[in-house]
């Protein structure tokens, strides 16, 4: 089954113009998923550097790169608040669900512009949680889980409407916006979503934020209960709205 999240990102990077031979910076790279997508596009003549402020996911990303034999992909610990000139200059900066967590998105984008070559490309993917989910007929469990997830993210200080704000923030930072697009992720009886696995990963954060208790989440059976609701309703749920934008540094 196609991973719809990866499919959106792959198309976004390719359509934006990430291409063979480029040097690309992946911000907030985590386990390296976006970096590996970029590596496919830049090829062996290109380079991808993934940065994250946490060392643990970087270790996993490095191991994945070794397993794939990707010498063109490197990972380093770095903070977006204090980007070092030693990182060098890049043809493109890419990122997924990173800008939403920045206290000052415009200042963050300005710092990224400083490491881009003149005319360099920035490609970002963000979300808007406020217009979804839209389920027909109603799917109460899906709607409750969605509310828990995004209430947790909001409690952590994220801008849960960054997708809608993306174009304006890029312009405010001095970039020339070339394209903005959005797609809704669709969940049906036969087209599931990785909802339960995301909740499992977020469980500690949800409980710590006071959004839901472990007894309310019941993560061990969540996948089965969500599937049962989809089977019973045989409905459709627009789960989340995903935005992608690309822009260029002047010059």
Q: What do these coordinates show?
A:
This protein is α/β, with parallel strands linked by helices and 251 residues long. It is built from nine helices and eight strands. The chain has helices at 4-16, 33-42, 55-68, 105-114, 140-155, 162-172, 195-208, 214-217, 219-233, and strands spanning 23-27, 47-52, 73-77, 90-96, 116-128, 134-136, 176-188, 236-248. Strands 1, 2, 3, 4, 5, 6, 7 and 8 form an eight-stranded mixed β-sheet that branches. α3 links the parallel β2 (47-52) and β3. α1 (4-16) packs across α2 (33-42), α5 packs across α7 (195-208) and α7 packs across α9 (219-233). The longest helix is centred in the middle third of the chain and has 16 residues, at 140-155. The termini are far apart. 40% of the residues are buried. The model has no long low-confidence stretch (mean pLDDT 95).
Radius of gyration: 19 Å
SSE string: HEHEHEEHEEHHEHHHE
Biggest β-sheet description? 8 strands, mixed
- Helix-residue proportion: 40-55%
Blueprint of the fold:
Elements: H1 4-16, E1 23-27, H2 33-42, E2 47-52, H3 55-68, E3 73-77, E4 90-96, H4 105-114, E5 116-128, E6 134-136, H5 140-155, H6 162-172, E7 176-188, H7 195-208, H8 214-217, H9 219-233, E8 236-248
Parallel strand pairs: 1-2, 1-4, 2-3, 4-5
Antiparallel strand pairs: 5-8, 6-8, 7-8
Fill in the keyword field for this structure.
single chain, 251 residues, alpha/beta, 9 helices, 8 strands, 26% strand, globular
Short summary of the structure?
The chain is an alpha/beta fold. The chain is 43% helix and 26% strand.
């Amino acid at each position: 089954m196609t991973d719809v999240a990866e499919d959106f990102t792959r198309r976004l990077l390719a359509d934006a113009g990430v291409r063979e031979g480029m040097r690309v910076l992946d911000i907030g790279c985590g386990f390296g998923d976006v970096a590996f997508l970029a590596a496919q596009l830049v090829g062996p003549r290109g380079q991808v550097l993934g940065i994250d402020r946490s060392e643990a996911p970087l270790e996993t990303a490095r191991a994945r790169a070794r397993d794939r034999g990707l010498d063109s992909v490197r990972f380093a610990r770095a903070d977006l608040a204090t980007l070092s000139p030693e990182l060098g200059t890049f043809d493109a900066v890419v990122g997924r669900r990173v800008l939403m967590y920045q206290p000052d998105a415009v200042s963050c984008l300005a710092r990224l512009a400083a490491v881009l070559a003149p005319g360099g490309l920035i490609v970002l993917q963000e979300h808007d949680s406020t217009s979804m989910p839209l389920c027909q007929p109603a799917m109460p469990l899906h709607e409750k889980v969605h509310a828990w997830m995004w209430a947790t993210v909001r409690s952590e200080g994220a801008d849960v409407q960054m997708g809608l704000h993306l174009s304006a923030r890029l312009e405010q930072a001095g970039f020339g916006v070339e394209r903005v697009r959005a797609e809704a992720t669709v969940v049906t009886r036969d087209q599931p979503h990785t909802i339960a696995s995301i909740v499992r990963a977020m469980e500690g954060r949800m409980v710590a934020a006071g959004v839901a208790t472990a007894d309310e989440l019941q993560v061990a059976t969540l996948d089965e209960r969500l599937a049962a609701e989809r089977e019973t309703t045989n409905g459709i749920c627009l789960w989340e709205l995903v935005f992608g934008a690309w822009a260029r540094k002047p010059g």
